[in-house]
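Quick note —
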Amino acid sequence: MDRLRLIAAALALALLAAALLNYIPGLTDADGRAFGIFALDIYDDGLHFASASWAALAA
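Predicted structure written out below.
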């Protein structure tokens, strides 16, 4: 695997982790913010998942 494909695969994993962040118990507070900082909703999750899919296809 060349360097650009490795970078694209790493980006896909990072974006997939960002998309799944709200669904891991214990990482969101009572206000629904991830790590108490980021307020992500279903549209943000969808954009992260679509971007992760695009990066995975590029890899």
